[in-house]
């Protein structure tokens, strides 16, 4: 898969809330950052994903725009969740770095919902 396909597959895995699949798209030494913190390596990323997924009843990642240049993929998205019983629609931007078919870095930028 090319970098754009890897990112789209990762986002679809979130919609299925499949922890093993979600974590499987990351390299062993990846970093994943959002306004809640930065998670480094497979163990930290798995623990964070498990925590998020356990609190979700539904997930939908709408890709509004996507751009790829080399190993970098940028996404403008609206992530929709039922999270802790609340409906959330979060507009955001994501930056992904991909090498050898794995996400090595993922950074999401957004304002926290109120």
UniProtKB/TrEMBL annotation:
Pfam families the UniProt entry points to: SnoaL_2
SUPFAM superfamilies per record: NTF2-like
Name of the protein in its database record: SnoaL-like domain-containing protein
Domain SnoaL-like: 11-106
Organism: Mycobacterium bourgelatii
